[in-house]
Structures are given as structure tokens and as C-alpha cells.
Amino acid sequence: RTWVEQESSYWILRDGKWLLNKLDDDEMAESAKKNACGTNLRLIDAAKEQAVLERGWATGTDCDNPNNRTSVNKYLKGDTAPQCPANGEYTYMPIGTKPRCSCPEHGNIY
Hints:
three-stranded antiparallel beta sheet; two-stranded antiparallel sheet
């Protein structure tokens, strides 16, 4: 089964035919939260890359160490970690590993 998501609907390829399905409000809200969380994870990862360039950190440097986390946050809006829209907690992970969210729905979306 193949699908393509649009704003409030998605297309599913079933038996060689494309079918349009509408998302309900709950599905749209969850989809928006998941997309926002993925964006936050990408921002954290980009901030980690900036910290590597400035600080010369090696692969494996612990970015959840409070001092290192502060260095990473310097490259994020407000000098602080973004908030998961579903109240998850972000783990920055070591250099060379992508950040994660504690929400089961979002954990490894990036």
C-alpha cells in the first residue's frame, strides 16, 4: 500500500487505483504534532553540528551533559531546547547520533 499525504487528506494506492481519503480533525492534529516534533529534532541536530564546528567536538561527545547541552542550545531560538508539542522530552544524544523524542509516536521520526 502506497500513500501520499496532503494538507487534510491523503491518497492511497489500492489495487492499482488511487483513492482519496480525508483526515479527521484528530488525525490532522496528530500529524501536525508529529511534523512539528520532526522539525524540532532537525533543529536540535543542526545546532549540534554548529557546536561541533565551534567547539571541535569528536564523534561520541555527550550532548546531554548539562554544559554541552548549554553549548548546543546557544544555536536554538531563545537559547533553549524546543518543546515537543505532545509534551515529550528531547534527548540530544552523542555527536554522530540523531536526537530523539520520548513520545512513542515521535521517538525516531527524524
